[in-house]
Design goal:
- With about 220 residues, this protein is mostly helical.
- It has one domain (about 30-205).
- Helix content is about 65%, strand content about 0%.
- Strand 1 and strand 2 (about 170-175) form a beta hairpin.
- Helix 4 runs parallel beside helix 7 (about 120-130) and helix 5 packs across helix 7 (about 120-130).
C-alpha cells in the first residue's frame, strides 16, 4: 500500500515532457482548446498589454495549480469549486494590486480584464483537470506550461495587430508612415477576430488535429 503514493508523487521524465509539450503546443489553450478567447480579443491591440496579461495568467495559473495540488487531499469534494475560486481569486488580487501599485498606466489600460482572470477557463480548467489529481510540482509545471502557451499566442496576435495597425511595436516605429498606411481595422475589435482566425488557421495547418480512431 505504501508504494502507490510514491509512484504518483514521482512521475517519470516522459510525464514531465508530455505535460510541458501539451501546454505549450500540442494542446495549446488557444489554438487547440479555444479557451481564454475573450481576453485574447480584448487585450492584444498592443504588445505590452498582451505581455502583461500573459505574465499575470502565468503567475495565477502556476501558483493556483501548486496550492490546489498541495491541498487536494484536504478539500472535500462537495466544496472543491469554492476552494478553487478562493485560491485563484487570492492570486488574482495579488497581481491586480501589484499592477495598480507599480504599473498604474498598464493596469488602467487593461481595465477589468486582470480581475477577470478568475473566470478564465484556462485557470479553472487546469485546476479541475490536473491539479486535483497530480502532485504539486507537476501541477505547477502544467499551470505554467498552459499559461505560457496562452501568453505566447497573445504575444503573436499582439505583434501582428500592433505592427500592422499602428506601424510600431512597444512604441518603436518599425513601419514608417511615409510609405506605410496604418490598418486601423486591426486595432479595433473586428481586427482581433481576423487576427485570431488567421492564427488558428496557421497553427491548424502546422499541427492539424487528429481524428479519433474508430473501432472496426
Amino acid at each position: 500500500m505504501s508504494s502507490s503514493p510514491a509512484v504518483s508523487a514521482t512521475p517519470g521524465v516522459g510525464k514531465w515532457k508530455k505535460t510541458l509539450g501539451e501546454g505549450l503546443y500540442t494542446a495549446n489553450p488557444i489554438t487547440r482548446q479555444i479557451l481564454g478567447i475573450c481576453s485574447t480579443l480584448a487585450v492584444t491591440n498592443r504588445v505590452d498589454k498582451a505581455l502583461v496579461m500573459g505574465a499575470g495568467l502565468i503567475f495565477v495559473t502556476g501558483l493556483s495549480n501548486l496550492f490546489l495540488s498541495l491541498l487536494r487531499k484536504l478539500i472535500p469534494n462537495r466544496i472543491r469549486m469554492i476552494a478553487e475560486m478562493a485560491v485563484v481569486s487570492t492570486f488574482v488580487i495579488v497581481i491586480d494590486q501589484f499592477l495598480r501599485g507599480f504599473y498604474w498606466d498598464i493596469s488602467r489600460q487593461l481595465g477589468p480584464y486582470v480581475a477577470l482572470i478568475i473566470t478564465n477557463c484556462i485557470v479553472m480548467g487546469r485546476a479541475e483537470a490536473f491539479a486535483l489529481s497530480n502532485p504539486p510540482l507537476l501541477s505547477l509545471l502544467d499551470g505554467v506550461a498552459n499559461a505560457t502557451g496562452y501568453a505566447l499566442m497573445l504575444a503573436i496576435v499582439g505583434v501582428f495587430r500592433e505592427l500592422l495597425g499602428s506601424g510600431s511595436i512597444l512604441g518603436i516605429t518599425l513601419l514608417s508612415p511615409t510609405w506605410y498606411v496604418k490598418n486601423q481595422l486591426l486595432v479595433l475589435a473586428p481586427g482581433a477576430f481576423f487576427a485570431l482566425g488567421l492564427l488558428l488557421c496557421v497553427f491548424n495547418l502546422i499541427n492539424p488535429p487528429t481524428a479519433p480512431e474508430t473501432k472496426k
